[in-house]
Amino acid sequence: MARWIDHYIRNEKERALAAQADQLAARFAERASRHDREGSFPFDNFADLKEAGYLKLTVPRAYGGDEISLYELVMLQERIAYGDGSTALAVGWHMGQILHLRTTRKWPEPVFAHLCEAVVNDGAMINTFASEAASGSPSRGGKPETTATAVDGGWLISGRKTFSTLSPILDRFVVTAYIPDEESTGDFLVERGEQVSLIETWDTLGMRATGSHDVVLDQAFVPTANRLHGKGSDDGGGWMLHIPACYLGIAQAARDFAVNFANSYKPNTMEKPIAALPSVQHSIGEMEIELRTAHTMLYSVADRWDQETANRPALKADLGLAKYIVTNHAIRIVDLAMRIVGGTSLSRQLPLERYYRDVRAGLHNPPMDNVVISNLAAEALSEFTQ
């Protein structure tokens, strides 16, 4: 019987992509424990991703990329997370944002073209650093304390960004900054230089290897052309499904570990493995309900986003619901897996305790649960608003 994770492969192209992702994930799984213990950034994993051509998969074909769909991105990110959640979440920000820029064309085309060429030719990556200690998550609408001041030929940017995932490896990134002269907020593409420094603050319970340190900008110069005006179409934020895909991959790994354990572990008080126990079978059945519901929700919404191009802004509530369902179900799956395995699941010699820590990080990735619930309520109420 095929693995459950393979049920959402639709054609030979996707089968080949999945096989490549599985090979990468297997390598990452061997290194995950070390990077987790050390809190070190997995440069070796990203070298493998670059060599495999993974980093260019969402780049437009016109610029040398593969232009994969959101559905395909979700499928691949789930598989990378099966091997290492930190690597999947980190690379997902790059992969997702390239997809977002491809569909919205919100950047000036010459700037986007230059980025794509760097991704394809040099393995460059991108992320946006928006979070700050004082303003909290940018999804909450706080005004950044980072400032941009106009000077001849460009801007000088100063401030400190937190949760800067991929910061150890990026040679360019986007920052949000407040522009006092305009009393507005803008996005700027910053190239790393002497005015940019990294402060290694990332020491967390889970997702320890994402390199989400603080980045400090001290009068960093940005050319006029690198101000990103934010124009373009509204895609509903579908690219952010890379987040729940990551946590579903972790949950799938936990489920597989627990099922294999149940099929093989036989205490000396039993004649058969513990999989024969009705209580264990019940827990496995509960995991399947959570897992299959999450998969159905995630992949159906991703497919709708791909197909309903004109309707993408209207899918925002469902995209948020997919993140809510998948993340909370993933947490429940890992919890059930640990209950099946028992006290051994707490051992740092096994991956389950890392899955348990990593999967909880999903609660703090956007959109937050209360935002999803509020958006769904607002949409329901609007049906009856005169």
UniProtKB/TrEMBL annotation:
GO MF term (any one): acyl-CoA dehydrogenase activity
Boundaries of every Acyl-CoA dehydrogenase/oxidase N-terminal domain copy: 12-98
Pfam family, one: Acyl-CoA_dh_1
Residue span(s) of domain Acyl-CoA oxidase/dehydrogenase middle: 130-219
Keyword Acetylation: no
Cofactor section: FAD
Keywords, sorted A to Z: FAD, Flavoprotein, Oxidoreductase
Residue ranges annotated for the Acyl-CoA dehydrogenase/oxidase C-terminal domain, each copy included: 244-361
Family designation: Belongs to the acyl-CoA dehydrogenase family.
Protein name: Acyl-CoA dehydrogenase
Organism from which the protein derives: Paenibacillus catalpae
